[in-house]
Design a protein that fits this description.
Elements lengths: L7 E2 L1 H8 L3 H8 L12 E3 L2 E5 H10 L5
Antiparallel strand pairs: 1-3, 2-3
Helix pairs in contact: 1-2
Amino acid sequence: MTTAASRLLSNREAAAVLGIRPETLKRWRSKTYKNRRRIPFLRIGRLIKYREVDLVRWINSCEDAA
């Protein structure tokens, strides 16, 4: 049984959740973007996967508390 908390998303699916292009997400994953809040990801062999719950946490951490 897969729950939203444990669901793994592909680069394309994660980019869709964030409303960005998959190429942008790939660039953000690069080590050259050191000042950006990193989005946690998993490397499973050659595959890159994102936990849906991590994306939600990352989005919430970007909220401006003003």
